[in-house]
Each structure stands twice: as structure tokens, then as C-alpha cells.
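User: Predict the full complex structure for these chains.
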Amino acid sequence: MARSFSSRKEGPAHLGGSTLQRQKLLFVFVGLTPILLIYGVVRIWPIIRTFSLSLFDSDLVKPEAKFVGFQNYTDLLSDDSFKTAFINTSLFALGTVVASLTLGLALALILTQFIRRSGIYQLVYFLPFVMPIVPVAIVWRWIYDPSYGLLNLFLSWFGIPKQAFLLYPETGLWAIVAMNVWKVVGYNMVILIVGIRNIPLLYSEAAAIDGAGRFGVLRYITVPLLKPVILFVLVVTTIGAYNVFTSVYVMTQSTTASGNDIKILVGEIVLNGFRYSKMGYASSEAVILFVVVMLLTLIQFRFVRSDT
Amino acid sequence: MSEESKRRLSRRKFVALTGGALAASSLLAACGDPTTAPTTTTASSATTSATKVATTATSTGFNSGFKVTSDPITLSIWADDTGMAPWYQKVTAEYTKLHPNVKFDVQAFAVRDFETKIAAAIPSDTAADIMQSGAFRKYVEAGLLPKNPDSVTKMVADPTIFPKELTDTLVFNNNYYGMPFYQGRHAIYYNKDYFAAAGLSTPPATMDDLTTYAQKLVKVDGGNMTVSGLSLRLAGAGSGIAEKFMMYLYPNGGNILEKTSEGKYHNGYNNDAGVKTLKMYIDMLYKNKTDDPKIKHDTEAFQLGATAMYARESNVVGDTANKKPDLKYSTAPMPKGVRWGDLSSPIGLIVSRSTKNTDTAWDFIMFSQQEQYLNLLLTDIGWIPQRQDYAFTEALKLRPQLAAFTFKDPNYKLFTAPAIGSFDEIETKLADRLSKAYLDSSLLNNDAGIKKVLEDAAKETDDILKKANLYG
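Assistant: Here is the predicted structure of the two-chain assembly.
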């Protein structure tokens, strides 16, 4: 420290300080280089390559690729499958985000404010999140089965006839949203509980002294101070929901699936890229997905950003 | 107990509970969807049921003419059907007895997973040494798979050994690619008990029979259909929906694609045959009510007794022998319409260009095509070999239901899907439109609506052909 202070006053020592700074910078640079290189190769380069491929009529199995400019993007505008997939994915994301955030917040508030020993409940709600998606999707496929599914058995107690939930695209999408909400709500709840517990009691006590009721504390203290955590949950859930693939594939698209094909963006990318070998076209779909998620994230940052 | 120890205990409980949940979920994953978990086997784990076969093979002194390596190697095999794993297990074990230095790593995938896998593996030269599939065409056209050795070509091109209709699909630029293996042939499966109860003594012979029989066979209890008269393929993934549609479209005089005299293609279903076929589906669902989208379908339904009849490939015979050996059923050739025939989907074996053991790989392929192993394929799995110079007497005696799949009549034509790379996209996109149409009850008594469905689908089909420069 003393050396550093003196270095600012004296010429030669100052130079020595700069050397130290340079050495520190060099150390940081050398230390981070391998990680940055790996990150660049496995993360950044594929993104750049995807952008580049989207401008070509590129076939996975043919080496030559013809530059077509924005032709792939204009073709997407007249592609019914892509449009359906885009709408379905957006509805899936909207349903998942709204339901899992609302339910997660409600559960977090109940468990932190009304239940004293809430650990076991937290564990129960969190468990679906740690379970692998494939067996979960298979179990839910059984639950929705029109012939012997648990849900239809339950509905039959109320005289409701058998429903083929996964057969019709209108019900199939929301059936998978319900499964996804069940899976992620525990994660959102745990994150929100951490956020709520980090709000100093001082604020809510002060608000209570000023006459605020439970709802007042929730509205003017808890939710505003929870905004950074809510933003995190929003962004993570939105990105996850737009990238949905495995659950939809297992429940409606795989060889053993009992449902009707529900089109989603990632499914379309896989289909066009790896089944029809249209890598350029699939890349343009991937770019659209990237841009949409990026825009939504920026919008969420803009509107949910904490002012505190 | 102190607060601290209580907390420690609760942590332990947490870990135990979480661990238990993870173990349970792993267990679920292990017994999960075969589409995500390939069936893997090695020669060392083979059963001994094929011992008799091995003795025969060894005593006959098999010699393919290929030089088998003496180095210790492991040949990898990828198959596009999970049901094929037991057959490979037995045949590779027999081969290893002949050549102890050659081991195998066999992976059998669900067909869609296989297609996704080879899409990345073949262009990057990381594919297996030997692959089994019916979807090699686009890789052949792109020059990513090697042509057959001369001795194999000589055998494949011999019309007394393989049907020419099938081997023609292996030809590209006057070269043959791959060894014909088995074929997906179709027939009508029917439940004999249900037929007897309905007073039906013979299987449906015509397309009209199919409709009238279905009405006699359907069972309804309390307003709910319990047994469908004819189980149609209405849902599910991929091109299967269009393939099954094509089987009924053909006797009505149509096809998915028609080939022109110039070697180009256009849709073959935006016509009267297409309207008649789609109308048959809609009528069966919403007018005659011989099928219902909400009940069980396909093989599962047939084996559970939830349908009286349906059209399917021959491997159901092998599957039913294992899962439901007491089911009283029989099979019949596909019904007649204005024409008569069956779709054959040929499956082949090919050696990848990245293999380091080409000769040994071909030697194994030739070894696997001996009569005793193809008999095994028929009896154990149920697939129909493409070889027509063997009688398969033993297998047909053991599984009489296979007779409808090997049925021959001068008027019973064998037809195949066009050997073009873009056919999969055409079929899959048509399947997508058909599955939506089947759920649309407003198409009942609505010829204009049916025509619109076919017109839109046909435009998409022709556009794909135009883009591939194959339209004409």
C-alpha cells in the first residue's frame, strides 16, 4: 500500500506502480485466456456461424453453399409451419412465465409469511425441478392418456367424458404448459423465497408502524424490493420456455408419442436442419429465436428494472 | 436435542430425500422412452438360443471372398429400429465365434433418432462402420457413402436374388449403394374372435369390404367406442401418417408422387383418388364411426383387443409372438380397389466411408444374409427379407401370419416410394396436413373442404419438388 501511495508522487516509483498494474492485468489476461478461448469456440463462434449460415442456401450433406442474402428470412414469412411454431412457442412461453411466476410468488409469500417450518414444503415443490425431463414427460403422457390416464379418471368422477388432451393442438399445448409450470414453479419459488428473506425486516416493520396492512407491505415494500429477483426469474423462465423441446418431443413428436405433433421453434430448427438437411434455413429460424429472446429480455430489463 | 443438531438432522433428511428423489427419477429414466435411449448390446452378452444356427454356419464354411482382418477390432453397427437389437445380438455372436478377434458394438435406435444421428455423423465421418436404414439416399446423392464393391454389386443386381423393384432404389449414377436387407411390407391384421362374433368368415378382400366390415366389427358401450372396426393411423410423429394414407390411396388409383416419362415428379393425390381416400377416413371417423381419435390405436390397440383390424408391417407378428402369444389373429393381403398392390419400404445395410475395416464389415454383412439368419429375422423379429431365392419354409410354418406379407399374385403389385432425397420432407409435411384434416369433423359431407385440404398439400408437395429441381 505504502509503495503504491509513494508511487503516485515519485516518477520512477510511479513507473514501478504501472508495472505492477500491468503485471496484474497480464496475470488476469493470461488466467482468463483459456476460458475465453473455450467460451469463444463453443459459444460465440457457433452464434456467429449461425448468423452467417442463415444467409446461405446451405445443405448439411452437401459441401457447396450458395449465398442467398435474406431469402431464407423472406421464405420464413410464407412458411405456415414456422408461423405456427412461432405462435405456439410464444403462447407456451407466455403461459409458462405468467403461471410459474404468479404461482411461485404466491407460494414464496405463503411459505415465508404463514408457515413457520416450511422446509418440507419447499422440498416437495422443488423436487420436480431436479427430475430429468424425459421420465417426467413420459409420466405426464400417461397422466393425459385418454384411455387409462389419471386425469381422465379424476374427471370421470365429475361426469366429464374422456378427453384426448395431447391429440388436439388446442389442448395439447396447454397440457404441456401445465406440466412445465409444475416443473419450474418450485425453482422460481426458491429463488423468490431467497429474495424475500433478503429484504430487511426493518422496512416492513416501519411500514406496519405507519399503518400499512399485509397487502400494503406486499405492494409497497416486498414487491418493489423484490424487483431484481423477479427480473431474474422472468428472464430465466422466458429463455427456458422459448427453448422448449424435449417435453414437447417426448409427449407429441417421438416415435412412441401418443399425441399430435405440436410445432415449436426448436423442433422446427431440428426438423429443418437435421432431417431435411436445410441448415441455412434452420439457421435463419435460430436467428429469429435468438433475436426474439434477446428483445424480450431487453424489454423485461427495461420495465422490471429496480429503481432502488 | 440441540437446535444445531436438529438443523443437522434436517439437512441429512434433506439430502436423503433429495437423493431418493434423484434415484427414483433415474430409475424412471432407465425405464423410459426408447426414443431417447438406444438399445445397446455387445456380442459378449449374446444368448445361446442361436447355437444350432452357428453350428450350421460354421459347418457350411462360409466364405464371402472378403479378407477378414486378423487384428483385434470392434465393428460398430447402428440400426434404425430398436426391435432389431436381439437379432444383431445373435448374429454378431455367431460371427465372433468364427472370428474371435472381431467384436461388435451394436446400437439400435428409434428411426427418427437414427435419422438425426446420421445427419451429423455421416458428413463428419463419425458414423458407425455398418449402418442399417432406408434413408441413405440423400447421403448417396451427396457422395458421402461409398458404392458397393464389385462382388456385392453383382449379387445385388441379380434379379433372381432380389426383386428389381427394390434394388432399383439403391441405384445412383449406375452404381449400387448398400446391401438389400429387409422390407416393410403391409397386410391387414384382423382379430379372429371379433370376426367370428360378427359372423365374418373371410378377411376383407376389397376396399368396400374394408368399410362394411369395419361397421360390423365396431363395438360401442354406453356411448363410448370400446373396439374400433378399423384402426386408422390418425396421429403420431413423422411421415407414418402419410405412408398409411398412401396404402389406401394406391388401390383407389392414386399415389403420393407420380413419375413422369421424363423422370420428373408431381403430386399424385390432388385428384379423385385422393378425395376418395380422404373421404373414406372422414366417413369412418364421423359418419360410420368405426374409429375414434380418442381411443387406442395401432399395434397397442390390436394387441389389447381395442381394434378388430388394421394395416401394418410384418414386424407386428414378431412383436405379438413375444407380447401377446395367445392373441387369435390372422392377416390378409392389402385389399383390392381399381388396382391392387402393397407398398414395400426397403431397408438396407451399408458400410460407411469412414470405416477402417471395409472388407471385414462387408464380410459380416454377407455373413448376416445367410438363410438361417434371415429365417431368424422372420421368426424372431418378423421383418420380411428382400432375398427371394430362399423359401423361408421353417419361418412361415412357425409364423403362418407372415404368409400375407410374402403373398404373390401377378396382379398384386409391389410399389415403393420414389428414391429421391426430398421424399421424406414431402411425406412428413403431407402427414402434418392429413393429421389436422382427420381431426376436422367439418370435412364430413364437405367435398369442397376435402379438395381444399388436398389442393393446399399438393401445392406444398410440388413446391418442394420445384426447389429440388425434380418437378415435372
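The two ends of chain B are 86 Å apart (CA to CA).
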